[in-house]
Amino acid sequence: MARIVVIGAGLGAMATAARLAVAGHRVTVYERGRTYGGATGRLERDGFGFDTGPGLVHLPAVYRDVFVKTGKEPLEALVDMAQVDPAVRHFFPDGTAVSLPNASRGGVVAALEEALGAGLGERWGEFMNRARDAWDRTRRPLLEEPLRADPRVLGRDPYPAVRVKRLLRRDRQAGTLAEVAAWELADPRLAALLESYALSYGLDPRDAPASAAVLPYLEQTFGSWYVAGGTRELARALYERCLARRVEFVFGAEAVSVVEKDGRAAGVELADGTVTEADSVVAAVPPERLSALLGGRAGPGQEPARGAVGGPAPVVAGRVRVFLALDGAREAGAVHRSVVHSARREGELQEVFGRSGPPPGSSGEGLAPTVWVDRPDDPALRPDDGHEAVVLTAAAPVAGREYDWAAPGLAEAWADRMVAAAGRAVPGLGERIRWREVRTPADTAEVTGAAGGAVPAPALAGREGRFLAPGNTTPLDGLYVAGGWAHPGGGAAHAGMSGALVAGLIVEGEGFRGSQ
Fold first, then answer.
1. SS (H, E, C) 410-472
2. CB 432 within 8 A of CB 390
3. How many Cα atoms sit within 13 Å of 237 on the Cβ side?
4. Sign, CA torsion 400/404/405/406
5. 432-449 pLDDT per residue, tens
6. Residues 6 or more apart in contact with residue 334 via CB below 8 angstroms
7. How far apart are CA 123 and CA 60, in angstroms?
8. In a 10 Å sphere around its CB, with 0-12 CB exposed, 13-18 middle and 19+ buried, how is residue 435 labelled?
C-alpha cells in the first residue's frame, strides 16, 4: 500500500483519489480552500441556489465509470441525473430562434431546416458527419490514453476539411473553427452556432483548430444532462465516494512545495511548515501553482507562455457569471438553457481575446456579449414556485494589467450588458430581478489559483499541438498532474478522465496504455 498525496479537491482530483484508494493505496487530499469541488461550487442566499461552475454535464459516462469502478452503488443511485430537452434554444441577431433537441442529430438537422431555411439543416448534418470523423480519429489518443511520448503526431488536424474551389485562385481548406464556419457552413447563424461552442470553453474560434468541431458533436451525440440540485451534487457524491473509500481530506491546508528526495517526489510541505511524506504526489492545480510547488520551476509543458509541445499557447478567456434571484414563476414552455448570440461577433471576439474592451469604469455602453442563460426547473434551487434562480454566463477577458476587474463599475457594466441581452430569453427579466451577484475572472482566480481566472479547455488536436494539455507524468519521478490543466484538458468530463489516466499510470506504471 503506497502513500499518495493529492493536491486539490476538484472533480479531477477526487476522481483520481477514489480510483487510487480502491486500488489499495492510502490517499490524503490537501485542499487550500474550505470545501471540495474546486470550480464546481454553490452560491446560496435567501432560499435561492446557483451552480458557480458548469450547469450541465456532458459525457456522463465518465462519471458513471468512476462510480462503477470504485463501489457498489452506481452514479444514478446517488444523484438524480436526466437529459434536458430541448438541449438548448438559440437566439440569433436577425430575430431567428431555434430549439435543438437533446442527443438527436437527426432532430437537430430537422429543427435547423425548419427554422433557418431549406438546405441549412442538411448542411449542418454534413458538417457533423465530418466532425464525427474527427472524433473517431482522436477519441482514444485525446481522451482515453496517456499523452503519447511524442505528442507532435497530434499536431495534425484530424478534421477532414472540405476543399473549397475558387476561380483563378488556389483552393483552400479550413484550418481553424472560424474558417470552417465561414467556408463550409456559409451562413451567419450556423457560423454563430458553431463558434459559440468554442466560446463556451473559453476558446477563440479564429485560433482554435478545425478539430474543435468535436465540441458540438459531443453535445449533440451524447446529450446534455442536468443533475437535480445542481452540478454541485455530482461533486458531493464524488466526495462521499472518496470518504467511503477512506480517502482523507484536509481542508484549509495549502501545499507550498513538493518535497524531493533522491530525484523523485517524496511528499509535500504545507504553508504551516508541516511536511507529509508520500510515495507519489498528484498535483491537480493550474500551471502557475505547479510552478510554485516546484520552487519556481515550470512543470512539463506548463510554462504559462507556451503550449504543451512548444509554440505560443492559445489565448484563453475567463467567465463572467451573473446570478439572478427573480420574482415570479418560471413561465410555461421555458427551456433549461438558451444562448443569446451577440450581434457583433467579431467585436466580441476582439474584446474577449484582443483585450480591447471598455475602459475601466466605463458606463457599459459596449456591445452585448453572447450570453448563456441557465434556467433549471428545480425546486431545490428556489424558495418557492413563485420565484426563479437564473444564471447568466459570458466569456470575458482574464484578469490582469490589461483588464482590471477591480476597476469601479466594470463588473456591474458587464452584468448590465448581459442582463439586457438575456431579456430575449427571459420575458420581463429586468422587472423581475430581486437581487443579483456578479462573479468575474478575478473571483475565479481567487478560488482556483489560475492566472487571471482563465478556464481550461478540452485538449484538441491540430495547430501544431498548441491546444494539447500537458501530459500526466512529469520529469520528476513520482509527481503526476491531473485535473483540467492536464491531459486531456478542461471541462468536467475531461477532468474526470484525467483521474482514470493518472490512477492507471500510478497503479500499472509505464505499461499503462489507457482506459478500457
1. HHHHHHHHHHHHHCCCCCCHHHHEEEEEEECHHHHHHHHCCHHHCCCCECCCCHHHCCCCCCC
2. no
3. 24
4. positive
5. 999 999 999 999 999 999
6. 375, 377, 426
7. 28
8. exposed
Query: Over the stretch 251-287, which tens digit does the pLDDT of each residue have?
Result: 999 999 999 999 999 999 999 999 999 999 999 999 9
Residue 338 is which amino acid?
S
Task: Determine contact, residues 57/28, Cβ cutoff 8 Å.
Answer: no
Please, what's the b/e burial string for 10-41 (b: 16 or more CB within 10 A of its CB; e: otherwise)? bbbbbbbbbbbbbbebbbbbbbbbebbbbbbb
Task: Give the single-character DSSP code of 388.
Answer: E
One-letter amino acid identity for 381?
Answer: L
Dmax (CA) of the chain: 71
For residue 406, what are the contacts with CB-CB under 8 A and spacing of at least 6? 442
Q: Provide the 3-class DSSP secondary structure of residue 26.
A: strand
Query: Comparing C-alpha atoms, which of 209, 202, 157, 154 is closest to residue 178?
Result: 209
Q: What is the pTM of this model?
A: 0.94
CA–CA dist 419, 57 (Å, integer): 24
Beta strands at 224-227 and 57-58: parallel, antiparallel or unpaired:
antiparallel
Task: Summarize pLDDT for 139-192 with one digit per residue, the tens.
Answer: 999 999 999 877 778 999 999 999 887 766 787 899 999 999 999 999 999 999
Q: pLDDT digits over 382-434, tens only?
A: 999 999 999 999 999 999 867 899 999 999 999 999 999 999 999 999 999 99
Burial 249-277 (b: 16+ CB within 10 A, else e): bbeebebeebbbeeeebbbbebeeeeebe
Buried b (16+ CB within 10 A) or exposed e, 379-400: eebbeeeebbbbbbbbbbbbbb
Q: Distance between CA 440 and CA 118 in Å, rounded?
A: 41
173-187, 294-308, 485-499: which range is least confident on average? 294-308
Cα(471)–Cα(487) distance, rounded to whole angstroms?
5
For residues 87-107, give the mean pLDDT.
96
Distance CA 117, CA 96 (A): 11
